[in-house]
Specification:
Length: 454
Amino acid sequence: MDKNLQQKLWKTSFALLILLIIALGGMLMWQYVLLDNKVVAQQTWETLNRTYFDSEQTIINGDISVETINELVEYANQLKSIKYRGLKQKASQAVDQYKELALVNQLVDEIPNEVMASAQWEALNLKSTMNIEQLMQLKQQRSYGAQDAFFNQMNQVWDYYETRLNRQSMIETQLANLPMDVTASLIDTLSVQLMELETEIEQLGHSEVQKQWREQLQEKVSQLAEMVQRLNEEEPLSRSQCQALFQSKQFATQLSGTELDPRLLVALTFDDGPHPDITPQVLDILNEYQIKGTFFVTGANVDKYPELAKRIVDEGHYIGNHTYNHPDLSKSSDEEVIQQLEWTQESIIDATGATPFMFRMPFGAGGKRVVHLAQALELTSVIWNVDTEDWRSHDKDAICEQVKTYLQEKTLMLMHDTHQAAPDALRILIPDLITQGYEFVDPLSLGYDNRFFE
Ligand code: NI
C-alpha cells in the first residue's frame, strides 16, 4: 500500500480517536460536573429518609403527608445526572408506595407504624361503611407491582379484609335466611344453619364486629327459642330434635335447663371457704378442665383471705353469699338475716369488685322467709339436689360413692372447699362426669328451680 495513504489513514483515525475522547470527556463532564446538583440530591435524600419508616428504607411511613411526597417528587424531577439514577428510582418507589398506602387508607381508618411493624392487621379499624364490593373496586385500582416486602405486607392487608368482609357478607345472608317461623320439619335444618352461623362468627376473631354479629344472632335465636317452646307445647319435640337444637351454643344458652334441654348438666358448688390450703387446689383443678365452679363464701373468711376471693372472681368462677359467720337463719330475725347478707356482700365487693347475685343458706335452713328477704337484696337462693356429704365423711371414695348413687340428669352438687377430700374427690369425679357426657354449667342454668327445702 502507498506509504502516504497509510500515514493519512493513521492520522485520521488518531484524530477521530482524539475527537471521541474529547466528546466522551465532554459528556462525562456534562453528566457529572455540570449536571451535578448536589444540593438537590441532598434534599432528596433527606426527604426520602422522612418518607420511610425503617432505616433500610423498605416500608413507607404510614404518617407521611401528601406535602412531603410532593416535595420528594419535585426534588427528584430536578435530578438530571445519571449519577442519581438510583436515587430517582428510590424516590419513585416511595411515591408508588404512598399511592398504595393511600388506597389502603380508603379501606381502614389509619395505619399506625406499630401495626406496619407488627403486621397485626386485625388491630386496624375497617371503615364502617366498607363492604366487599367496594373493597374489590379499590383492589382493582392497585398499581404497585414490585415484589418487595412492602408489597407482601399490603397483600396481607387486602387479603385479611377481603376474607373478613366476605365472611361478614356470608353471615349477613345466613342471618337473613333464618326462618321467620319454626315448624317441626324445620328443626334439623335450623340447627345446622345456626351452627354454621356460630362457626362463621367465631372465626371473625375477638373484635367489635364479632360482638355486634353475636348480639344480632342472640336476638334472632331468642325469638326462635320462644317459637320452639310454643311448638313444643302443641306437639312435643323428639329427643333427637332437642339434641340437634342444643348443638347450637346460643340455643343451649337460651333454653338451658328447660324441659327441652336434653343434656346432662352439672353445677359444681363449694361452700364455707375460701380456705387457704383447699380453695387454691380446687381452683387449679377446675381451671385445668376449663370448668367454672361456684363458691359460696362466708364474709368472715373473705375478710381473712381477700386475695383468695379475688382469685375466684379473676379466674372467671362465680362467687356467692353464704352469710357472714354461718348462723342457722331459721333461728335468726329478719333484721339479723339482712345484716348477715349485707355484711357479706360488702366483704365480697371490697375484696373482688364483683357483686354476688346468688346466695346459699347455711345448713339449707331458713325456708321461704329467707328466700324472700334475700330477693329484696337481689340475691337468688341456690340450694342443691346432690349432697356429697363430704362434710361428714372427709373421704374421697365415700364422696364418689355418694355422687354415683344420687347423680341426676340435672345435678346441683354440694361440696365444701374446706378439707382435703374435696379436691381429691374432684380429681376422680370431673373426668368421670365428662366421660358420662355431662356439661358443666352455673347453678341458675340447670333448670333446677327449687329455692328452699320444704
Ligand atoms: Ni355452709
